[in-house]
Amino acid sequence: MTLEELTVEATAEIEAAKPLYKQVNNERLEFTSADYDQAIIDLANSKWNDQQFGYIQARQEAYGSVQDQLDMQYWDGVNGTTTWADHIAQVKSDNPKPE
Amino acid sequence: MAGSLIKIDEEIVSSAVASVSLLGIDSTYDVYMVKMNNVTPSADEAFCMRVTVSGTPQTTSNYDRAYKVMRTDTTFSNASSTNANLGFISSTAVLTSTTGGLVYTVGEAHNGVHYFFNSGNIEAGTFTLYGLAK
Fold this sequence. Notes:
Chain A has 4 helices and 2 strands, in the order αββααα. Chain A has helices at 3-17, 33-63, 66-79, 83-94, and strands at 21-24, 27-30. Chain A has a two-stranded antiparallel ribbon. The termini of chain A are close together. The relative contact order of chain A is 0.11. Chain B is mostly beta strands and 134 residues long. Chain B is built from no helices and 11 strands. In chain B, the strands form 3 sheets. In chain B, strands 2, 4, 5, 8 and 10 form a 5-stranded antiparallel β-sheet that branches. A 3-stranded antiparallel β-sheet of chain B has the order 1-11-3, with no helix packed on it. A 3-stranded antiparallel β-sheet of chain B has the order 7-6-9, with no helix packed on it. Chain B is globular, with a radius of gyration of 15 Å. The N and C termini of chain B lie close together (8 Å). The interface between A and B is medium-sized, with 25 and 32 residues. Strand 1 (21-24) of chain A pairs parallel with strand 2 (19-23) of chain B.
């Protein structure tokens, strides 16, 4: 999706979430019009970042620790299996890089 | 007494809000500290901050950061960015320990800090701003 399309999606979500509040000086105040506009920009940017770069963090989390990967490689060497390579390929496949 | 922490502002979130501002930073102290306790998001989202000018969060793309993230689920990672329009404090829902720095590269007086999640609300939490007595 383009940033413009994500902005439309973000606008709908912020509209649905209204009213939103902010807390300042121990007062709970409803967002101003400018606050809502900024919330839409922030949410759209967040969606864009997730779309474009979320796969990096998802892959990092799914790869597992270096120790676990080394263990897989050791046993692959002992047993002649491809557990580690299969695991890495699966993580990449499950978390594709956006085109 | 020099070295004492002087409480300047405290916001106790007992009813969900989308953001919290801690105000009262000026030239009285050289060092300020924010303590956050039991901050609870409504969803797994990145936790962010901005500095304020006269209470208004600054949204220009001048936030730079670099830090090391010690994660509880996997090995450590590095995180950095320049010219963002907000500062990330935590960008994962996983429990982490983060060491590093965040700077807003605009020469102007800031009177506070503003906290929020990328989306959703701050369901609960206590935010306290202290100044370190000279």
